[in-house]
Amino acid sequence: MGNRAKAALLLEEGYRKILEAFEIMGYPVKTDDNFTETSGRAARAMLEAVRPTAEIQEELDQMLGRTFSARYDEMVISKHNVSFGMCPHHLLPVIYRISIAYLPGQRVLGISKLSRLVHLLARRPVLQEDLTQELATLLFERLETRGSAAYVEGLHLCMASRGIEAHEARVVTSAVRGVFRDQPATRQEFLDLVTAPQLNLL
Ligand SMILES: [Zn+2]
């Protein structure tokens, strides 16, 4: 049995326990048919939100293995990608808005790949700080760029769903490498682009 199948079974077992707890808390888990297949459904949903690391690694290698010769040397930016992740402290969802950028070296990544990269790496139970650093490092080191940057805003449901003051809590993290770190003007250009008020194009 593969790791994904093993994980699915364990998750289903775990969700059955959660439902038992709900029953003790007074919810009609046994009699309301909305709960009939919940443990299996919840397990599948969790496996979409958190993907096995081996799958992520494989997809990442494929993605970074197909690059194009750079024909320009200006900043490439993929802005405001809405992605979903999971906080490792509470296992509750995080809704991210992620912008990444790089200054090409010899090779560039197809522009749609940047969004895929963001979605791929977000779907893990990792801290927002670590996700931000990893995105910047990956674009800098594996793509051998002159510099890279990541700007991540996270709406953490663990914060938003508890306590009145935290309802609007957004966590903002950023990371810069290479030219973005060494040249304040480049970093500022990136920050201005990703934090500018958005005009709706569609
Ligand atoms: Zn949390």
Give short descriptive properties of this protein.
single chain; alpha+beta; GTP Cyclohydrolase I, domain 2; 2 domains; 4-stranded antiparallel sheet; two-stranded antiparallel ribbon; 8 helices; binds zinc ion
Describe this structure in words.
- The structure is a single chain.
- By secondary structure, the protein is of the alpha+beta class.
- The model has no long low-confidence stretch (mean pLDDT 92).
- Strands 2-3-5-6 form a 4-stranded antiparallel β-sheet, sandwiched between helices.
- α1 (3-24) packs across α2 (38-49) and α3 packs antiparallel against α4.
- It has helices at residues 3-24, 38-49, 53-65, 111-122, 128-142, 157-160, 179-182, 184-195; strands at residues 68-69, 76-86, 93-103, 107-108, 147-156, 170-178.
- The N and C termini lie far apart (46 Å).
- The protein folds into 2 domains: 3-49, no CATH class; 67-195, 2-Layer Sandwich (GTP Cyclohydrolase I, domain 2), CATH 3.30.1130.10.
- Residues 87, 89-90, 92, 156, 158 line the site of zinc ion.
Condensed summary:
By secondary structure, the chain is of the alpha+beta class. Helices cover 47% and strands 22% of the residues. The structure holds zinc ion.
**How far apart are the first and last residues' alpha carbons, in Å?**
46 Å
User: What would you call the shape?
Assistant: elongated
SSE pattern, N- to C-terminal = HHHEEEEHHEHEHH
Largest sheet: 4 strands, antiparallel
Query: How do the strands line up in the largest sheet?
Result: 2-3-5-6
Counting H and I runs of at least 4 residues, what is the number of helices?
Answer: 8
Count the strands? 6
Q: What do the pLDDT scores average to?
A: 92
Which class best fits the helix and strand makeup? alpha+beta
CATH superfamily of the largest domain: GTP cyclohydrolase I, C-terminal domain/NADPH-dependent 7-cyano-7-deazaguanine reductase, N-terminal domain
CATH architecture of the largest domain: 2-Layer Sandwich
In percent terms, what proportion of residues is strand?
A: 15-25%
| Assembly classification | single chain
| Poorly predicted runs | none
Q: Any idea how many domains?
A: 2
The distinct bound ligands, ions and cofactors come out as: zinc ion
